[in-house]
Specification:
Multidrug-efflux Transporter Regulator, Chain: A, Domain 2, five-stranded antiparallel β-sheet, three-stranded antiparallel β-sheet, 29% helix, globular
Length: 130
């Protein structure tokens, strides 16, 4: 499972690193320390936290307005069918869902907790693995 530094988690959540540290210190987000003493957040924990944070912040504010925007975020769900797949990304307060082939999901190796960028154009959501 991929893990994220405090700084990278802050960028994905759209907040400052100090804010993420405060959340971690308050017990809202579990962290662990590596050999060098740096704090890390497991990808699945960050994905779950980003979903709960978005639910708290659902105040109707539209930060993104262009149809061609890129939404960097974290994959929160991958649902595989026989041929099709559904991938959900939490990008700050935005939840994006992309319908694509199972083959594409497997080729990209998409999994919960990974970073990804959802690119939205009209009614299509494309996913770039980062």
């Amino acid at each position: 499972m991929r893990s994220y530094t405090i700084g990278r988690a802050a960028k994905l959540l759209g907040v400052s690193a100090d804010t993420v540290r405060r959340w971690a210190d308050a017990g809202r987000m579990p962290t662990r320390r590596d050999e060098a003493g740096k704090r890390h957040i497991d990808g699945a924990d960050l994905a779950a936290f980003s979903v709960s944070l978005a639910a708290e912040a659902a105040d109707g504010e539209d930060a993104y307005t262009s149809a061609r925007n890129a939404f960097p975020g974290i994959i929160t769900a991958v649902k595989l069918g026989d041929v099709a797949a559904q991938v959900e990304i939490q990008a700050g307060p935005h939840r994006l869902v992309s319908l694509l082939t199972r083959e594409a999901v497997e080729e990209l190796g998409l999994a919960v907790g990974m970073e990804a960028v959802a690119r939205v154009k009209a009614t299509n959501v494309h996913i770039d693995r980062t």
